[in-house]
Structures
1.
Amino acid sequence: MGNAGPGQARPLLDIRAVSKSYGARSALRSVSLTVDAGRVLAILGPNGAGKSTLLRVAAGIARPESGEVRIGGRPVGEPAARRQVGFAGHQSFLYGYLSVEENLRFYAQLYGLPAARAGEGLERFGLQSHRRRPVRELSRGLVQRLSLARALLHDPAVLLLDEPFTGLDAEASRVVRELIPERRARGCAVAVATHAWAEARELADDAVVLVAGRPALREEAASLDGERVAAVYQTA
Amino acid sequence: MSAFWVILRKDLVVEGRARDLLPSMAILALLLLAMTGATGLRADAAPAILWITVAVAGSIGLVRSFHQETDQEQLHGLRLAAVDPAMIYLAKAAANFLIVAAVELIAWGAVMIFFDIPIPRRPAALAVVLLLGTGSLVAMGTLLGAMLATARMREALLPVLLLPLCAPAVMAAAGATARLLSEAGGPVAGELRLLLAFTLLFVSVALLVFEHVIED
Amino acid sequence: MILLVLAAAALPIGILLALLVAPVEAFQGEPYRILYIHVPSVVTAYLAFTVTFVASVAYLITRRVRFDRLAAASAEVGQVFLTLVLLTGPIWGKPVWGAWWTWDARLTTALILWFIFAGYLMLRAWSGAQGARAAAVVAIIGFLDVPLIHWSAVMLRTLHPRPTVFRAEGPALPASMLVILLFNMAAFIVTYLAFLTVRVRQEAMRSEIGEAGSP
C-alpha cells in the first residue's frame, strides 16, 4: 500500500491499528493503512463498512478507542497536524445563514489566512456568481463545491474525501475529477472513500476494500476487478 | 484569542439574520410574566418569577445556539481548523450571554411595569446581581446546550436539566433581587459571593470537559 | 447472589426492629419510627450518587464502558432511595411539624437533587450510546452542585430538626435507638449493593447480546 521502506520519507497519512465503536457497535477493528505523499488511496466497501468512520478518525474529528493517526509524523490531535488536513464529507461544515463568501472568509480567518484566499477559492470552484447568496438557499451541488473549497482553503498536505461524487452535478464532478490528480501532482496524500470501484480504478493509485470494519482486500487500483470486489463485499 | 472574536462575531451575525432566538425568548418571557401577573401573583414574588422566567426562556436560546453548530456538523469544522475547544465554549457563552442579557432586560422592564416596582434604590448592586445571575445561567446552559445538541427531546431536556443544576444561582439571584427591592433592603454580599463561585466553578468545569463533550 | 440473600434477610429484620423493638421517643411519639427508614435512605441515596460521580469521572478519563454502566445503575438505584426519602419526609413531617413540606435547606437540596437525577435518567433514556459522555458530565456537575444548593438554601431558610445523628460531638440518640438505626443503615446499603450488582450485570448481558448480533 505504498508503504515507506527504510530510508525513505515516512508516509504523510499514517493510520495505526485504529479501532472505533459507537456504543456496542464496532465500526473499525484495528485498521492500519498509510498513504504516502503524491499517492491517492481509494477506500471501497459496502454501506456500514466503516469508510466514513475511518476518514473521520483520520481527520481527527472522531477519536478512536485504540490506535493512533499521524499526519506527517505528528499525532493528528496536535494543531500543527490538524492544519495539514483537509476534509470534505457528507456534512458540509457550512453555516446556512452566512453567504458563500462569508463562510470562506470565516474559515480563512480561523486558519489565519489572508481574506484573498477566500476569493481564490471562489474562483477556483466557480462560485463567484453565487458569492453573496446564503448557503441555505444553495442546491446540493453548489454546497458540495463550497465544501470542497473550504476543505482546500488552507492548501492541506492531506486531503480526505468521503464519497465526493454523490449528489454532484456534472460541473462539480468535473471539478473533483481534476482536483485529485492536481493534488497528487503537488505531493499531497489523498484518500477517497467511494462506492464505485470503476471510479477508484480511474482516479487512484492504491485501493483498499473495507468490510465490517476491517481491510479485506488491498491492491493497486489499476488491477481492481468488479467481480472480485463484489465477492469480497459478500464476505460481510 | 482571535478565534474567540471570529466565532463570537459569526454568532451575532447569524442571530442578526435569523432573528429567531431573541424574539421567541423575549415573547415567552413576557408571556410567562403576564400570565403570572394575570393569575394574581403578588409583587413580592416577582423576583422569583423573574429568574425562573429568564431560566426557562433562556433554555430555548441555549438549545438553538448549538443547533447551528450541528446541523451540518459545523462544530467538527471548527475542530478541524484546530480551534481550541475552550475558545469555542467561551465564544458561544459570550454570544449567549449577550442574547440572554437582552431577554433579561426586557423581562426586568416587564416586571417593573406589571408588578409596579419602584425604581430600585441600589441600581448598581441590582445590575451586578442581574449580570452574575445571567452569567451563571449562561455558563451552565452553554455547556448543556453543547451536550444536548444531538439528543432526542433536547428542547424539553435542557430546561429540565438547567433549572435544578442552576438552582443555587437562581435561588441566590432571586433572594438578592428580593432583598434589593424590599423596603428594608440589606446586604447581598453572600448571594453575590455564591453567584461568583458558581459561575467560576462551572466555567472551569466546562473548560475542562468541553473537548470531550463535542468530539465524536 | 449472596448480597441479594443478605438484603432479603436484613431488610425485614431491620423494619421489624424499627417497628416493634425500638423504644418510644419522648417528644415525637410513634411517628418518629419513620426515622429508621428516612435516615438510612438518605445515606444510601447520597452514597449511590457519590458512586455515580466517581464512576462518571472514571468513565470520562478511561472511556471504559464498565464505568458508564456502574454510573447509570447506581443512579437508578439511588434515585429509588431518594424518592423514598422524599416520601418519608412528609409522612414524618406532618404529624411532627404540622406541615407536609418545608423549604428548609436539607429538604430543598434533596428535592433538587432528585430533579437532577431525573434529568440524568431522562438523558440516558433519550440519547443512547452517544449520551454516555453527556450523562457523565451531568452527573459530575450535579454532584459538585450539591454543596452549592445547600449553601443557597441555607441562605434562604432553615427548619429541619437539628441533626441528632450526624453531629460533630457524636450521635445524640440513646444507644438502643442508635443500634437499630445503624443496623437499618447497613441493611439499606446491602440492599443498594444487591440491586446495583443485579442492574450492572443486566446491562453487561444486554450489551453482549447486542454485540453478538452484529457481524
2.
Amino acid sequence: MTAQLTLDQVKEGQALPELAIDVDVTTVVLGALASRDWRPMHHDKDFAQERNGTRHIFVNTPHNAAYFERYITDWTGPTGRLGHIKFRMKDSVFPGDRMVFRGQVDKVETDAAGCGWVGLTIRLAVGDKTTTECTARVALPSTEGDNPWKRKGEQWRP
Amino acid sequence: MSELPEEVKAWIGQEKYREEGEFDVERGYIFTSCSSVENGNPIFWDEKVADEITGGCIAPPTMISVWFRPHQWSPGRSEPAVPLQTHFDLKKALDLPEAVMTDNTIVFYEPVRVGDRLHTYQVIRSISAPKTTKLGTGRFWELDVEYENQNGEKVATESYTGFGYKREKK
C-alpha cells in the first residue's frame, strides 16, 4: 500500500504544501489535447488575441480541474477520493506565467455514513493575482484500514 | 437584447443531447491526462495498486468531460462537432459570438472504470439578464451535464457557468 493520509492526521486551518508550475505554450497545448479540446484559443495565439481579446492562448477548464485534482491527491495519497470540486476562473493562465497552488483545510468531519471528509479552499495564483479559486470536498480514510473508494450508494455522500 | 426569445426560454430545464460516448474509457487517454499535469497517483499508473485500492483501473474523476469531447473529424461529418452543444446553441440563438466558461462544479459518484461506455445529457438551468463585464456585453448561463455508466449508475454531475458576449467596439 502506498503512503496515505488519514483523517486523524488533519486539522482545520492546516496548510497544504505549495505547488509551483511554470507554464509555457507546450503546457497549455498539452492540456488542451489531453482533454480533447480542439478549440483554437487553446493552441492558436492569433485566434486567442483577435477573437477572445486575450494576450495569448490560455489553460482550458478541464486542464484546470486536472491540476486541482493532482494538487489535492499529491497531498492525500491514493486513498483520498474526491467528492466534489468547484472552481471559479477569475482570470486566465497564459504561457510565461508561474502558477502557484496554495490550499488550506477549512473543515474536518465525519458524515452519518461514517465517511471522513475534509473541506479545502485552494487558490491558484499568478504573481499577486488569484486567477482561480477552488473549493473541494475529499474523503479520507478514517483509520489506516479504511478505504473511501469502497463506498457505494448510500455509503457515498459527496 | 433584454428579452429572451421564446424558443430559448423553452429550453430551460429540458433534457437535451442524450448520447453515448464515442469510445470506451481507455488507459491511453488516462496516461495522457495524468502526464499533462504530472499526476503520479499510482491508482492511475499501477494496476496492482489500482486493484488494491479502487478494485481495478479507473480514470481520474476530473477527466469526466473528456469522454464526450468529439473527434475534430470523423467519417460522414462535414462540420467539426463541438462538445457541450447547448453552450453553442445559446451563443447562436442569442447572437453572442464569443463565450468563456467562468465556474465549474463537478460532483463525483461511482468511479469511471477502464472499459466503461458512458452516457450523458445536458440541461440548461438558467440564463441571466444582460450584463456588461470587461470582456463585453452578454449573458451568463448555467448548464448541467449528467453522466452515467453503462449500468445506469450516476458517475458525475458537472455544472458550468458560461458567459456569452459581444466585444465592445473600440
